[in-house]
C-alpha cells in the first residue's frame, strides 16, 4: 500500500504554481469572494486554479453547522452581501468558465437557508454566460421543500447535495445533519424536475465498512441520484476528525464498478476526487452518453 519510502504515493500532489494561486487570490479579493477550494483546504485547488476553475462559495464564509470533517470556519455568520451574486457572475465571466460550480456554507440562521441567494447567483451568471452550465452544491435547507423548489425553479443543470458519509457515522461526522433528510432532498429533486441532474458524494476513510458504503450507494440509487463522487477523507486541520484508514486506489476502483453496476450515470471514485472535481467534464460525458 505504500512506496519504498513508506509514503502513500497515490495521495501525492505536485506543489501548486504560486503565481497561479496569487492571480486567483487577487481576483477573489478584488471581488470580495470566497471559494470552497481555499476555505475547505482542498488538495486539488492548485490544479483547478491553473485551469482557471474554482468552486465559488456564497452566503459568506462562516458556517452555522459543526461538521467535524470540514475546515470551513464555524460560528455566527455575517449579514449577506447583496453584491455577492453579481460578483460571482463577474468572476465567472472573467475566467470565461464553461461550467460554474456554486456552493455555500450552511446558513440555518436564514429563513430559507440562503436559497434565494442561490437563485440570484444563478440568474446573474446566466445573464453574462448564457451558454455555460451551472452546478449548485446545496445544504439541506433543514428539509425545506419550499427552499429546494426555489433552486429547482432557477434551473441549474446540476443540483448536488452530499450525504458525505454512511448512516452509522452521521452523529460523529455530521452531528447537526440527518441522513434520511439528505436522501429526501435528493429524492425531491427528481420528483419535482426529472430533467435536472442530481448528484451526491461521500468520503471514505472515516471508519466505515465496505458494506456500509455499498448500502449508501443503494440508498442514493433508490432516490434516483444520477452522479456519485467518492474520495478519501483527509484531515484538513488539527481540530478535525482523524483519518481512520487510507483507502487504496484499487478499492476506489471497486467502488466505482459497483456504483456503475447499480445504475449511476457516472461514478467518480478516486482518493483525490472531491464533489466538484472535473465537474464540467463529467457533465459533458453524461450529456453525451445519455443524450441529455
Could you characterize the architecture of this molecule?
This protein is of the alpha/beta class. The protein has one domain: Aldolase class I (TIM Barrel). The strands form two sheets. The protein has an eight-stranded mixed sheet, sandwiched between helices. A two-stranded parallel ribbon has the order 3-4. The protein is globular, with a radius of gyration of 18 Å.
SSE arrangement:
Blueprint: H1 18-30, E1 34-35, H2 36-39, H3 45-50, E2 55-58, E3 62-63, E4 73-74, H4 84-95, E5 99-104, H5 115-128, E6 133-137, H6 145-153, E7 158-160, H7 170-173, H8 179-192, E8 197-204, H9 210-222, E9 227-232, H10 249-262, E10 266-269, H11 279-289
Parallel strand pairs: 2-5, 3-4, 5-6, 6-7, 7-8, 8-9, 9-10
Antiparallel strand pairs: 1-2
Helix pairs in contact: 4-5, 5-6, 6-8, 9-10
Would you list the SSEs in sequence order as H and E? HEHHEEEHEHEHEHHEHEHEH
Strand line-up across the major sheet:
1-2-5-6-7-8-9-10
Q: Could you tell me the mean pLDDT?
A: 88
* Termini Cα gap: 40 Å
Apparent shape: globular
Number of helices: 11
Q: How many domains make up the 3D coordinates?
A: 1
Strand content is 5-15%
Main sheet specs:
8 strands, mixed
CATH class: Alpha Beta
What does the radius of gyration come to? Answer: 18 Å
Structural class, by secondary structure, is alpha/beta
Weakly predicted, low-confidence segments = 1-6, 36-41
Fraction of residues in H or I helices: 25-40%
CATH topology: TIM Barrel
CATH architecture: Alpha-Beta Barrel
User: What is the β-strand count?
Assistant: 10
Per CATH, the superfamily is: Aldolase class I
Amino acid at each position: 500500500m505504500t512506496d519504498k519510502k513508506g509514503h502513500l504515493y497515490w495521495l501525492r500532489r505536485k506543489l501548486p504554481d504560486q503565481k497561479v494561486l496569487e492571480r486567483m487570490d487577487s481576483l477573489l479579493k478584488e471581488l470580495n469572494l470566497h471559494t470552497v477550494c481555499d476555505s475547505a483546504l482542498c488538495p486539488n485547488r492548485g490544479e483547478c486554479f491553473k485551469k482557471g476553475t474554482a468552486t465559488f462559495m456564497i452566503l459568506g464564509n462562516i458556517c452555522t453547522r459543526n461538521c467535524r470533517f470540514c475546515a470551513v470556519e464555524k460560528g455566527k455568520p455575517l449579514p449577506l452581501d447583496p453584491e455577492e451574486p453579481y460578483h460571482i457572475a463577474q468572476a465567472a465571466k472573467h475566467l470565461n468558465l464553461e461550467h460554474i460550480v456554486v456552493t455555500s456554507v450552511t446558513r440555518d440562521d436564514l429563513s430559507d437557508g440562503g436559497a434565494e441567494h442561490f437563485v440570484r447567483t444563478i440568474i446573474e451568471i446566466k445573464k453574462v454566460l448564457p451558454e455555460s452550465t451551472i452546478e449548485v452544491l446545496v445544504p439541506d435547507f433543514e428539509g425545506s421543500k419550499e427552499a429546494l423548489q426555489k433552486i429547482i425553479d432557477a434551473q441549474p443543470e446540476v443540483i448536488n447535495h452530499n450525504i458525505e458519509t454512511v448512516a452509522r457515522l452521521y452523529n460523529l461526522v455530521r452531528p447537526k445533519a440527518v441522513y434520511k433528510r439528505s436522501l429526501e432532498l435528493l429524492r425531491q429533486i427528481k420528483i419535482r424536475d426529472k430533467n435536472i441532474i442530481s448528484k451526491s458524494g461521500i468520503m471514505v476513510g472515516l471508519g466505515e465498512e465496505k458494506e456500509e458504503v455499498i448500502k449508501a450507494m443503494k440508498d442514493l440509487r433508490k432516490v434516483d441520484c444520477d452522479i456519485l463522487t467518492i474520495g478519501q477523507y483527509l484531515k484538513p486541520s488539527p481540530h478535525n476528525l482523524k483519518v481512520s484508514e487510507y483507502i487504496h486506489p484499487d478499492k476506489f476502483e471497486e467502488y466505482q464498478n459497483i456504483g456503475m453496476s447499480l445504475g449511476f450515470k457516472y461514478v467518480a471514485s478516486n482518493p483525490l476526487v472531491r464533489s466538484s472535481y472535473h465537474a464540467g467534464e463529467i457533465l459533458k460525458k453524461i450529456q453525451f452518453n445519455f443524450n441529455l
